[in-house]
Amino acid sequence: MKKLSKRSFICLLALLLLCPAFAGCSGGEGESQEKEILFDEPVTFTVMTYEHQSQPVDPSAIKFQAIQEATNVTLDFDITPLAEYNTKKAAAFGSGILCDITNATSDDLSRFSGANIFMPLPDELLEESVPNFYQRVKDDLNWKMTKINGQALGFTTLNASTENVLLGGYLPVIRYDILEKNNLQMPTTWDEWFVVMKQLKTIYPDSTPFSGRNKGANMLTHPSFSMGCPPGLYFDYDTNQYSIGALETQYREILQFFVRCYEEGILDPNWQTVDSNTWDQGVTNNKIFFWYDNAGFAAGQTANLQKSDPEAKMQVMPLMANSQGEKQGVLYNQHSYTAFWALSANAAEPEKLLKFMNWLYSDEGMYICNYGKEGETFNRTEDGKVTIPAEIIDKYRGSSSPDYNWMADYGLGLLCFTPLVNTSYGMSVQLGLLDEELGSIVDADYEAGYYHFEDIKPPLPEADRATVNNEMRQINALIFAGVNEFVEGTRPLTEYDNWVSDIKAAGAEHVLEVYNTALANAQ
Fold it and tell me: CA–CA separation, 269 vs 261, rounded Å?
């Protein structure tokens, strides 16, 4: 197993949100050490992307000024709030009218691969025209798994860290101080967790002990995996095969567990309408004591809680054993194999566009995209370490979200058009806000073999792709509606077998056959 670098773990974990996480390799080959302007004449590229609520995107930020000075490229952004982005993106893909660069997912590339709207990126083209990217991924099996019909259709978001790091993932987080205050032991199993949560509900009648930022069945997906299996399509690390949890015998037991949570008031009664704001408010108002998500959020929540209670602490906890005495959890992958920057097949200047992408994956592009304008918002030493001017650091002292606030102000990082991420010297590092305890807790479970890296789904054969995608839409609709209904009691568990039959009728067994065959072929 890889050895965990706690320093890098904390820096990156605090920044990761909807997208999967990253770690990576050293600087790309084939890039010039001289700082030359990329293009002699001005060039404009259009970019369609989303804006996350944690970090507004300002196209006039200093980062984009630095990009223009270094490349002569002006970026013309089409920005949509994250909640509305999938709808807008699907409409663009359906029309075939794309920006030069579009923020897309691996599912998007697969679903619309037959429409010939994305620039094909065979290895030969990448090696010749985008060597800074290609040298980072050419031997990466996970990246090869993202290819469709043998070639890439977009540039995955990578990380430039030179350290061998373990990153964040889907982690259980609990209020340590509340347990201590009430003489409650840290639960080591999910059954113990239920008892503890029920006691907290009794002590704090107005609380909703377990909640989150994801609505309905999505809130239960990762806890369900920890207990044995989630309801939908997932990779079983014991069998090395894909399964659909709802078809497994043990999922009925897991669903019954959540029914009890709902009946006892442990699960937030508003679990189908929650969002990031209501979740944060619930934690800050001492209504929520447990959630299962990216533990990076815990630092900001703890900071808010400590404004009124210095002893408050929202923190990741060790993984809990399921009813079979087993522990399992999921960590983000080394690179974001589901987050892509796709290029339009109809781009007006494809050669220049590829040259610009190559620059974005260069060291110069990485430093500018992650830290802004050298000599003004950051400096770097001969060995590549970054320092940020004291007057900038001082602006974020006392902030509950120093990294997000800093990146929003200067247009930096993962959520603001950064194909090659490097958070090693982020604002939390500059301020000395490293949570060593979090790193040691996750490290212990990782070293024990309980955590797995997120699976990368294999490319499906073109002949099966449309059918399987359609089947999965029907299956997911049945699964998520069923989980919601069973948990709230609007559908009795006596209909569980009928639910499973409906899922099978929607094509579940065919989906598993195609995925597992594709997996075997990819390996």
Answer: 10
Alpha-carbon gap, residue 444 to 329, rounded angstroms = 13
Contacts of 128 (CB under 8 A, 6+ apart): none
Model confidence pLDDT, tens digit, residues 188-236: 999 999 999 999 999 999 999 999 999 999 999 999 999 999 999 999 9
Please give the torsion angle defined by the CA atoms of residues 425, 431, 435 and 439, in that order, rounded to the nearest 10 degrees: 10
Its pTM stands at 0.77
pLDDT tier at 166, thresholds 50, 70, 90 = low
Cα distances (angstroms) measured from residue 150 to each of 123, 126, 452, 460? 9, 13, 27, 11
Within 10 Å of residue 18's Cβ, how many Cβ atoms? 13
For residue 521, what pLDDT is reported? 86
- The residues with which 49 forms a beta bridge, in sequence order, are 79
Indicate whether 30 pLDDT > 70: no
**Residue 7 CB partners (closer than 8 Å, separation 6+):** 429, 434, 439
- Contact at 8 Å (CB) between 203 and 194? no
Give me 289's structure tokens.
């004591």
Q: Which residues contact 88 (CB under 8 A, 6 or more apart)?
A: 48, 80
403, 426 contact by CB (below 8 A): yes
Q: Residue 209 is encoded by which pair of tokens?
A: 């002990």
Most confident of 110-114, 121-125, 142-146, 456-460: 121-125
Answer yes or no: is pLDDT of 29 > 70: no
Cα separation values, 153 from 93, 140, 365, 456, Å: 13, 16, 21, 16
Residue 97 in tokens? 């009218």
